């Protein structure tokens, strides 16, 4: 199994820096998990995928 891109220790540091989720009065699509979004960003930056 490969090493995770965002370790639990790193995630604990990042969580307080995230903005709070504001309620959406008109509804809309629910947000994806913040940790998964960060993993996707790091994957693109590390691999060079356009």
Polypeptide structure, described:
By secondary structure, the protein is mostly helical. Helices cover 42% and strands 0% of the residues. The chain contains two helices and no strands. The protein has helices spanning 8-14, 34-47. The two termini are 25 Å apart. The mean pLDDT is 88. InterPro entries: IS402-like_dom. Residues 6-50 form the Insertion element IS402-like domain. This is Transposase.
How does the SSE layout of this entry go?
Layout: H1 8-14, H2 34-47
Summed up:
By secondary structure, the protein is mainly alpha-helical. The chain is built from 2 helices and no strands. The protein has helices spanning 8-14, 34-47.
Cα-to-Cα separation, first versus last residue: 25 Å
> C-alpha Rg, in Å?
14 Å
**What amount of the residues lies in strands?**
under 5%
Q: Give the % helix.
A: 40-55%
Counting DSSP H or I runs of 4 or more residues, the number of helices is 2
Shape designation: extended
By secondary-structure content and strand pairing, the structural class works out as mainly alpha
Number of strands: 0
Please describe the biggest sheet, giving its number of strands, its sense, and whether it closes into a barrel: none
Protein name: Transposase
InterPro entries: IS402-like_dom (IPR025161)
Domain Insertion element IS402-like: 6-50
Pfam family, one: DUF4096
Supply database-style keywords.
about 50 residues, mainly alpha, 2 helices, extended
């Amino acid at each position: 199994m490969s090493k995770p891109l965002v370790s639990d220790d790193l995630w604990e540091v990042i969580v307080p820096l995230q903005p709070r989720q504001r309620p959406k009065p008109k509804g809309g699509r629910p947000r994806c998990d913040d940790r998964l979004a960060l993993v996707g960003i790091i994957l693109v930056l590390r691999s060079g995928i356009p």
